[in-house]
Design a protein that fits this description.
The protein has about 500 residues and is of the alpha/beta class. It has 2 domains: about 270 residues, Aldehyde Dehydrogenase, Chain A, domain 1; about 180 residues, Aldehyde Dehydrogenase, Chain A, domain 2. Strands 15-16-17-14-13-18-19 form a 7-stranded mixed β-sheet, sandwiched between helices. α2 runs antiparallel to α4, α2 packs across α6 and α3 crosses α4. The N and C termini lie far apart (about 80 Å).
Length: about 500
């Protein structure tokens, strides 16, 4: 029998107010993994009320004690890594080595955030007046709304939840409807680790109703969102109406530049992994290959051989290299972009079709286009699938110009044996992340993650920047002179 999951509000399982449910479908087998209740506006209200109560309790606990809860959660995640990875492969589709990596990211950021419980550093500085101390403190924001995507169903929620918790906030959390089980498991682990009731609440359902209710709720003080550029723009507009803090992690159209002096074999492995790992369903996936004309033919020929050898199938099987895409809508979106690429005049070298590996799920072939112009839609718009566009250039300057010719600016990479080329790329590419002799994927949790232009709005996740995302800075002045001192006026 398929289990039905309720909402989790105020430390308790609660029936939703809508009476509606949705199914959680395995994208490889189309098996129904679970049935989940759909939250309504009334449920979001209840979650906010519970979070406000939880915030009053949690924010009063010293940060090092809050960190102890995260440490316990990290250890539980370690113990259950394989169990969670298997569930993620069933729920999201990507291969088991990748889902293990997803869980490991959650473990890493949880340990890292716990360490920040003793390092939420402010500043001390001199005063312009005698016998006066000036300093800053970091204070929690309050109740934070979080909306996360399906492609990293435990890592991305952990990137948001753990820094928010260690800094003393309470959370109303809406995970993606395609991958709710991993989010539920994460919340259960945090509760098991000792998180007080009400500090973390989970409401389930579509973004158009539940997500909208979170964004528009007047008592939610901040929103942390990962998703599409279009939705991110709407959230910024809505957040401005109640002066919410809004932090956005949006799309990418990530380029990898291969110079004629690159280590070809290393670059081939990086492009293959960057373009087709996670079936191209990463915001940092390599979707544009900017290739120096001197090595174009050799590189493409060798890339075709390696790509044809990739095996598509159930992500639980050790021989599988590429799993399914997440759902039917995404499959149809990829098909539309392939048609668009051909209509625009690009040459389809490989793939371009749905495929049947003996399973009824949503499978698409690794796809490579050449003769792609930088202004084509397949070179400009985020496809979020295993589709690689090859653009040929004659110089580093042209490569950087092409790399920057998009509204996004998340990740980028260059393969070169010339240190001058590497540093020019680091300086000139408009992106929040640049890799040298490595693919566009592979961020580590102790460095800030995020992008420029249409990819974000100035905030970064992970690293020390994550603490800034979920705190307010308070300036403090302590006058121990015993008399009234007037800044600026008494400084003469």
């Amino acid at each position: 029998m398929v289990h039905e999951y309720k909402l989790f509000i105020g430390g308790e399982l609660r029936d939703s107010s809508t009476g509606e449910v949705f199914d959680d479908i395995n994208p490889a087998s189309l098996e129904n993994l679970a049935t989940l209740q759909v939250a309504g506006i009334e449920d979001v209200d209840r979650a906010v009320e519970a979070a406000e109560i939880g915030f009053r309790i949690w924010s009063e606990i010293p940060a090092p004690r809050r960190a102890e809860v995260l440490l316990r959660a990290a250890r539980i995640l370690q113990e259950r890594k394989e169990e969670l990875a298997v569930l993620m492969t069933k729920e999201m589709g990507k291969i088991l080595p990748e889902t293990r990596g997803d869980v490991q990211e959650a473990i890493d950021i949880t340990f890292y955030a716990a360490g920040e419980g003793r390092r939420m550093l402010g500043e001390t500085t001199t005063s312009e007046l005698k016998e006066k101390l000036c300093m800053t403190l970091l204070r929690p924001i309050g109740v934070v709304g979080m909306i996360t995507p399906w492609n990293f169903p435990i890592a991305i929620p952990s990137w948001k939840i753990m820094p928010a918790l260690v800094t003393g906030n309470a959370i109303v959390f809406k995970p993606a409807s395609d991958t709710p089980l991993l989010a539920i498991k994460l919340v259960e682990i945090l509760m098991e680790a000792g998180l007080p009731p009400g500090v973390l609440n989970i409401v389930l359902g579509p973004g158009g109703t539940v997500g909208k209710a979170i964004v528009q709720h007047p008592r939610i003080k901040a929103i942390s969102f990962t998703g599409s550029l279009e939705t991110g723009k709407w959230i910024m507009e809505e957040g401005a109406k109640t002066m919410k803090r809004v932090s956005l992690e949006l799309g990418g159209k990530n380029p990898v530049i291969i110079m004629d002096d690159a280590d070809i074999e290393l670059a081939l492995e990086g492009v293959l992994w960057g373009a087709f790992g996670t079936t191209g369903q990463r915001c940092t996936a390599t979707s544009r290959l900017i290739l120096h004309e001197k090595i174009k033919n050799e590189f493409i020929n060798r890339l075709l051989v390696k790509t044809k050898a990739l095996r598509i199938g159930n992500g639980l099987l050790p021989e599988t290299d590429i799993g399914p895409v997440i759902n039917k809508a995404q499959l149809e979106k990829i098909e539309r972009y392939v048609r668009t690429g051909k209509e625009e005049g690009a040459t389809l070298l490989l793939g371009g079709n749905t495929t049947d590996p003996g399973l009824p799920g949503y499978f698409f072939e690794p796809t490579i286009f050449t003769d792609v112009r930088p202004d084509m839609r397949i070179a400009q718009e985020e496809i979020f699938g295993p589709v690689l566009s090859v653009i040929t250039v004659s110089s580093l300057e042209e490569a950087i110009e092409v790399a920057n010719n998009t509204k996004y600016g998340l990740s980028s990479a260059i393969y070169t044996g010339n240190i001058i080329n590497a540093f020019k790329a680091i300086e000139k590419i408009e992106a929040g992340i640049t890799y040298v002799n490595a693919p566009t994927i592979g961020a580590e949790v102790h460095l800030p993650f995020g992008g420029v232009k249409g990819t974000g709005n100035g905030f970064r996740e992970a690293g020390t920047e994550a603490i800034k995302e979920f705190t307010e800075v308070k300036a403090v002045y302590i006058d121990y002179s015993g008399k009234l001192q007037k800044a600026q006026i008494d400084s003469e």
